[in-house]
Amino acid sequence: MPAVAGTVLVTGGAGFIGSHTVLELLNLNREVVVVDNLVNAAQGVGKPASLERVERLTGKTVTFYSLDVLDKPALAKVFKQHEIATVIHFAALKAVGESVEKPLAYYRNNVNGTIALLDVMEECGCKSLIFSSSATVYGSPQSLPVDESHPTGVAITNPYGRTKFVIEEILKDLCVADKEFSAVLLRYFNPVGAHASGDIGEDPNGPPNNLMPYVSQVAVGRRPKLQVFGGDYDTPDGTGVRDYLHVVDLAKGHLAALPKSAEPGCHIYNLGTGSGFSVLQVIEAFKKASGRDIPYEVVARRAGDVASLYADSSKAERELGWRAELTIDDMCASAWRWQSRNKYGFLCTAGGGRHQWSGLIAATSAGGKRTSVLRRVGMCMGGMGSCAASVCVCVMRAVNMYVEPSEMLRPASVIFCFC
Ligand SMILES: NC(=O)c1ccc[n+]([C@@H]2O[C@H](COP(=O)([O-])OP(=O)(O)OC[C@H]3O[C@@H](n4cnc5c(N)ncnc54)[C@H](O)[C@@H]3O)[C@@H](O)[C@H]2O)c1
Fold it and tell me: Signal peptide span per the entry (predicted)?
């Protein structure tokens, strides 16, 4: 596959899609630098847990900086230390529901974060960006499948989606003003699944916002049942239809976009499979992959959901030579491998082993990593005092047990926590 030369800076590279993309970049022998503030990624021993596993899987090293893209001086140092040819910009907050409650946090992080990154890129002469956009910019689709000429910014139902739309507009304006700048806007449909190894995957903080991680947490026994929002849509079985895309295919889409990111101008591509699956079809496929029952109940529609949304990705195939290869069965099988091997995610891997928990203790007591570890553990323990919570997690991991946040309220757990 052709690719522009030089180091790739990946913002948000410790997250779900970022870590899979970093793995594919390393497999292509690319130099990769990751910046991430770990707001939604687990700290490992020295690096984020996802990147430690990526290094193990590839046998290669990633340079990592724990920083916020809003911190322009720190970001500029990274650009000065490495010759960055291209930036792949994943760093963002992405929970739709939370964005409704905290719009300012979303605009500040996603929009201001992107502007800060673009300022630093300008200062350091880097003119190539691949941006994680989303099918949410299409709002309620006027026709299906949706291609890139479909209007955007109309009837977007939440602030998260609007941050993606605003950033797209900023990038389009920048490409008009700076004739040397290249922006590739990749509009993802519904990324799911995990790396075939089952060692990296999606590790949501708290209850998952998306269907597949929710289904897999029900299958593994972390949640009692799934709620299906709406059974009366105008779809074959009445449940919502979406274009699910394997995260490994999506990661490869970024590699395919690299040559485009060397061509000035704004280039826009849908990344999806072109096929829609209903919620009930996903549940069936997951049952088959996992061999587990998935109890569910159909409840009222959720505000802002559309009946069907799937992509026309033929432009990406024509111009980037990319098309999704993996099927819904591959998506479910890999998601299940990840979930069943890592019941509680990266930090709380079932049967977790000394390496991880002693690493957690080490990282907790190491000044530089302290904040992110404690923040993560603090969230994990549902807002307990962060110090007590981190000690608690270490102790529980030492005996290979994990306590869900709700269980923290049980007296036995609390006593155990402080003993
Ligand atoms: N997962 C999806 O369904 C989906 C769909 C469409 C678009 N996207 C977009 O793709 C990108 C990656 O999504 P993901 O699913 O991997 O999410 P993720 O939360 O797993 O990864 C995002 C990473 O960015 C980091 N981050 C957030 N704000 C930051 C900041 N200010 N500075 C530095 N790091 C920061 C987080 O710690 C996290 O590691 C996001 O931009 C998201 O909006 C995701």
Answer: none
